[in-house]
Amino acid sequence: MNKDQYGLWLVLSSIIGWFNFFDIGLGNGLKTKLTESLTDGDVVKAKKYVSTTYLLLLCISLGLFLLFIIGQFFVSWQDILNAHFMTESELKRVAFLIFFSFTFQFVLNTIVTVAAANQNTIIGSIVNLLINCLSLVVIFLLTVYVKTGTLEMLAIPMALSPVLILFSANYFLFKGRYKVIAPNYSFFDSTLLKDIFQLGWKFFIIQLGLILVYNIDNLIITQLFGPDAVTTYNISYRYFSIITMLSGIVMAPLWTAFGEAYRIEDHTWIKSTIKKMQMLVLGLGILACIMAVSSRFAYKLWLGMEIDSPILLSWVLALYTVLNAFRTIYIYYLNGLGIISLQVILVVVVGILNIPLGIFFGHWIGLAGVVLATLILSIISAVIEFVQYQKIVAGTARGIWKK
């Protein structure tokens, strides 16, 4: 495939990924409440939380799929994606494949949340690894046996691989390790919806804001510079996602671990763990600088050719990924405690500002400017989140700082 086709795939997938926010925060609400139930040893309540969440997500996914099918008659993907070099019918078929996959993932991905609440965050990593490996094998076979690639050919393995792996994960884990809390429609309990939604609606607003903070960049780039620029951006983004991956390996269990430690009042462990994470981020910062300096060489080694990626983009992404790793420490702490009201306000304000700032800096600086806007807003958020953590630990948090 060429850069334009792959850029289209990236933008289209991210747009359809926006529909994830329609889980109205149920996944994150479940994670916090399930952790509490398991910590208290209330297995029956845990099973009710899982069953209620699965059934509700299934209903939502079916409703979204119906709306998408109807919307296909009114949406012009050529205009949205700035992609008039492909026919509307081709784009609609690819969009259908992606959304068809999303409908299943929307429900089945809950197994990763269940595993995280059980302090088994490695399950999510294994699932992602298997999805990527399966996609890679199929795409490699296509490169061997198909001379000219199309967007539809790419969509099939990329859309169906997650469904197959997630379905298998749900089947084997609920038949084995998590059998006692496996979802069952007879355990649906509407009275628990209030508990889940009490946090869930706040996570819903956060997810909606995060779309505007992070995922909107692809759409801004394709409108300002064309789909091929999205490919350039994502090459650099994936390169620096090594930082995100390394921090994620260590930090993934912190959300539920902080919640459990706070519930049993183990504040010494919390402070000690946060200090260790701060040292980890310092090390990642040094690694990110090395990666930025050697980025052009790394891209050539990785792709086998030179790419026109601005060095400024590499440095902005290096700072951005390290900053996100730093923020994750305090966000997971606050999420584990269920203190997220300030996050809701922050993410909405930042999300709204990110669009005009991204367009402004994009026109002024170029491709790197779109990401620079997000970086500036993330720095402001990081300062506020750190101050909130300090207030909570010192016992001086009041009002919005403690909600």
Keywords:
403 residues; 16 helices; mainly alpha
Question: Please, could you describe this protein's structure?
Answer:
The chain is mostly helical and 403 residues long. Helix content is 81%, strand content 0%. The chain contains 16 helices and no strands. It has helices at residues 3-17, 26-39, 43-71, 77-81, 88-108, 110-117, 122-145, 151-175, 193-225, 227-251, 254-263, 267-293, 295-303, 311-337, 341-365, 367-394. Helix 2 crosses helix 11 (254-263), helix 9 packs parallel to helix 15 and helix 15 (341-365) runs antiparallel to helix 16. The protein starts with a helix and ends in a 9-residue tail after the last helix. The mean pLDDT is 82.
Fraction of residues in β-strands: under 5%
Q: What oligomerization state is this entry in?
A: single chain
The largest β sheet comes out as:
none
Average pLDDT metric:
82
Q: What best-fitting shape do the alpha-carbon axes yield? A: globular
Instruction: List low-pLDDT spans.
Output: none
User: How many E-type strands?
Assistant: 0
- Strand-pairing-aware structural class: mainly alpha
Helix content estimate: over 70%
Give the termini separation. 49 Å
The run of helices and strands is: HHHHHHHHHHHHHHHH
Helix segment tally = 16
Radius of gyration, whole Å = 22 Å
